[in-house]
Amino acid sequence: MKYFLSVDMEGITGLPDYTFVSQSENNYEHSRKIMTDEANAIIGAAFKSGAREVLVNDSHSKMNNLLVEELHEDADLITGDLKPLSMVQNVDETFDGVMFAGYHARAGQPGVMSHSMTFSIRTIFIDDVEIGEIGFNSYVAGYFGVPVIFLAGDDCACREIEALIPGVVTAAVKESISRSAVKTLHPKKARALLAEKTAEAIAKKDSIKPLVPPATPTLRIEFTNYGQAEWAALMPGTRIIEGTTMVEFKAKDILEAYKAMLVMAELAYQTRYC
């Protein structure tokens, strides 16, 4: 069996705010250790449950956060931030299941450090379905026929994926009090929970269905201001929906939609005066 593990940072145990997830802040180095330990808890449980291969994708910010020398030696790691499929780079039909760790709720929703890719994005739609990183990454896995079987993060992230994927196994390692305060498990207890829930997810993987995306999806991204929409709409094939800050792109498949989202987010970031 072969599994893919995408590890974000905002949903890691004990991390309440940006000072723990930004490379320029004092708490960041401490957070890298907790992040790596939690990845190892999941990887170890996967191998104990029969996995022959686990591919880990560092999925936070510059995507070079995991401590490679402390990562489980039997896992392979994708690290670095220029990836065509970003948080789900190298997912394909050869995997038996996808797992998310350290994930957070989408922009505009309750949850610790909730957002969708960048702070310029207010919301994302695929056709009429409102999604964030959880939904978009699940759609990409579903394009290849692979189910997302497990998510770890705060309670809001867990509820978000449960609404999208029936039967998915979740592990809430902390509860959101506000967007920058949490009630958290101790890291040792969290690692035990992660191992337990990973084993449970692998045991029931055959009953969890992939989140299959539309064949030719329409991507719509609502930005926080009109300047960001203008920048995003410089990408060929896009248009600003009149009277809104929403940019539309009709994609040939979900992979093109995902890449379009990444490009539009980067373009929108060029807006300096908000």
From TrEMBL:
Binding residue positions for Zn(2+) 1: 8, 10
Record-listed Zn(2+) 2 binding positions: 8, 60, 104, 133
InterPro entries: DppA_N, Peptidase_M55, Peptidase_M55_sf
GO molecular function: aminopeptidase activity; metal ion binding
Residues forming the catalytic site: 115
Annotated keywords: Aminopeptidase, Hydrolase, Metal-binding, Protease, Zinc
Coiled coil regions in record: none
Highest taxon above the source species: Bacteria
One Pfam family here: Peptidase_M55
Protein name stated in the entry: Aminopeptidase
Lineage, highest ranks first: Bacteria, Bacillati, Bacillota, Bacilli, Bacillales
